[in-house]
Amino acid sequence: MSGVGRASVLLGAGTIVSRLTGFLRTVVLVSAIGATTEAGNAFAIANQLPNNIYAIIQAGLLTAVVVPQIVKAARHEDGGSAFVSKLLTLGTVVLLAVTAVAVVIAPLLVQLYAPRFPPDQQALATAFAYWCLPQILFYGLYALFGETLNARRVFGPFTWAPIVNNVVSITGFGVFIWLFGLTGSLEAWTPQKVAVLAGTATLGIVVQAAILFFFWRRTGLHIRPDFRWRGVGLRHIGRLAGWTFLMVIAGQLAGLVQSQILSEVSKEFPGVFVSQNAWLLFMLPYSIIAVSIGTPYFTQLSEHAAAGRHDEVKADIGRSVRTVGLFIVVATAALAAAAIPASRIFTNTTQEAVDAALVLVCFLAGLLPLSMLFIVQRTFYIYNETRVPFFFTLVQCALVVVTALLASWLLPTEYLAAGIALGQSFAGIVQMVLAVILLDRKLGGIGVASWWPSFGRYVIAAIPAGLAGWAVFLLLGGADGWTASDKFLGALGAAIIGIASVIVYVGVLAVLRAPELKPALALAQRFLPGRR
C-alpha cells in the first residue's frame, strides 16, 4: 500500500477511536448537565470560546501556511530546525498573550456570544469561561507541534492525542456525576461544581498537548527558544497568513451571529448545546474520511507543487476527491437514515432526539461539499494562494449570516437551530462550487468533468442505501422503538442502520461495476483488526 494509503489508515483509525471516545465524553457530559438545560447551554458557550480561537490557529494559520513552509524549510542545511525554533517560539509568545487577554475579558466574550441569556445564565457561563479560556494556550501548542509533526510525516500522534483528552474528560465528568448528579438548573451551581466540570475540560486539553512532546524526536528537528524572528521568511508567512486570518475571522463573525441568535432559544427546544452536538455527529464522517485521506494528500501535494510537478498535483486532486466522495456519500445517506437514534446518544429523552435529528439532517446537506472543499481549498494553499480562498469564503460567511437572520425572522423558536443548520449547508454548497471553478481556472483545468461519472454512480447507489437504512429504522420501531429509548441503544441502533445502508451501497456499486469500489474496499480493509 502507498505511503499516503498507510498514513490515511493511521489517521482514520486514530480518528475513529478519538471520535468514539469523544462521543462517550459528550454522553457523560449530557448526563451531567442535560442537553437543553440552561446550564448545558451556558457551558456550551463557555467551552466554545477557546475552540473558536483554536479554529483560527489551526485552520486559519497552520494548515494553510505553516505546513508548506515547513516542507520547504526541510531543504535547509539544518533540516529546518532554525526555522521551526523561531516559529514555535513566536507562536508560544503569541498564545500566552492571547490567552491572558481572553481571560481578562471573559465577561465581555460571554456577553458577545450569548447576549440573550438572562443575567444569571450569563454569570454561570462567565464562571465556566474563566476555567475554560486557558485552553487557548494548550490548544495552540497542540496545533503548533502537531502540524509540525504532520509536515515531517509523523502523522499518528496528532490524531491519537485527543483520545487521552477524552479519557481524562470522561473520568472527570464521571466524578462530577458521582459527586453531584444531574445539575441542569442555574440555582444548583456552586464554585466547586464549576471547578470540577470546567476544570476537567481544561485538564484534558493540557494532557492532549503534553502527549505530543514524547514524539518530537521522530521529527529529527532540534529546537530551542529563539527570539530572533527575522531572516527565515516570517514576513512572507505573515503576508500569506494575512488573507487566511481575515478569512477565518469572517467565519468566526458568521458563527458569532449564529450563536447570538441561538442564545434566544428557550430551554425546551434545540439551542446552542444541541446544535454543537449535532455538528459533532456531522463531523464524524468528515473527520474520519475527508481529514484522514486528505491530510496525507496535502503533504504529498505540497511536495509535488514544490518540485514543480503540477500534472501530479492535478492527478492527486482527482484521486483524493473521488476517494473521499465514495465514502462521504454513503456516510451521508446512512447518517440521515439513522438521524434519530444517533441524536438520541446526545439527548436525555426521545422527543429531544427527534428535535435534534432535524438539526443533524439539515447539517448533512453540506457534508459532501465541505469534504470536497477540504481538498480544493488546501490546493490553493500549497501554491501560496490565500487571497482567493478568502473571497470565496467571504461569500460563504455572508450567506451564513443572511440565512441565520432569515431563520430568526421566519421560523418559530423550535425550528431555529434546524433553519440555521440548513443555511450553513446552503452556504457551503455555494462556497464549494466557487472554489472548484476558481481552482480549475488557476491550474488550467483539474479534470472536473472526469469527477461526474463517479459521483453519479455514488448518488445512484446512495438512494436505495438510504431507503434501506430508513426501512430498518422503521422495522426496529421507528421513533417509538428501542433505538430511540436510550443513549447506548441509540448508538447500537444507529450502527445497525448504518451497516444496512453500507451493504446496499456497496452492492449497488458492485452491480454498476464502479471502478472506484475495489481500491476503496482495499483501503477500508486496512482498518480491520490484524490487517496491514
UniProtKB/TrEMBL annotation:
<dbReference type="Pfam" id="PF03023">
    <property type="entry name" value="MurJ"/>
</dbReference>
<feature type="transmembrane region" description="Helical">
    <location>
        <begin position="388"/>
        <end position="409"/>
    </location>
</feature>
<dbReference type="InterPro" id="IPR051050">
    <property type="entry name" value="Lipid_II_flippase_MurJ/MviN"/>
</dbReference>
<feature type="transmembrane region" description="Helical">
    <location>
        <begin position="320"/>
        <end position="342"/>
    </location>
</feature>
<keyword id="KW-0812">Transmembrane</keyword>
<keyword id="KW-0472">Membrane</keyword>
<feature type="transmembrane region" description="Helical">
    <location>
        <begin position="83"/>
        <end position="108"/>
    </location>
</feature>
<keyword id="KW-0573">Peptidoglycan synthesis</keyword>
<feature type="transmembrane region" description="Helical">
    <location>
        <begin position="237"/>
        <end position="258"/>
    </location>
</feature>
<feature type="transmembrane region" description="Helical">
    <location>
        <begin position="278"/>
        <end position="299"/>
    </location>
</feature>
<protein>
    <recommendedName>
        <fullName>Murein biosynthesis integral membrane protein MurJ</fullName>
    </recommendedName>
</protein>
<feature type="transmembrane region" description="Helical">
    <location>
        <begin position="128"/>
        <end position="146"/>
    </location>
</feature>
<feature type="transmembrane region" description="Helical">
    <location>
        <begin position="415"/>
        <end position="438"/>
    </location>
</feature>
<feature type="transmembrane region" description="Helical">
    <location>
        <begin position="194"/>
        <end position="216"/>
    </location>
</feature>
<keyword id="KW-0133">Cell shape</keyword>
<feature type="transmembrane region" description="Helical">
    <location>
        <begin position="488"/>
        <end position="512"/>
    </location>
</feature>
<feature type="transmembrane region" description="Helical">
    <location>
        <begin position="354"/>
        <end position="376"/>
    </location>
</feature>
<keyword id="KW-1133">Transmembrane helix</keyword>
<feature type="transmembrane region" description="Helical">
    <location>
        <begin position="458"/>
        <end position="476"/>
    </location>
</feature>
<feature type="transmembrane region" description="Helical">
    <location>
        <begin position="53"/>
        <end position="71"/>
    </location>
</feature>
<dbReference type="InterPro" id="IPR004268">
    <property type="entry name" value="MurJ"/>
</dbReference>
<keyword id="KW-1003">Cell membrane</keyword>
<feature type="transmembrane region" description="Helical">
    <location>
        <begin position="7"/>
        <end position="33"/>
    </location>
</feature>
<feature type="transmembrane region" description="Helical">
    <location>
        <begin position="158"/>
        <end position="182"/>
    </location>
</feature>
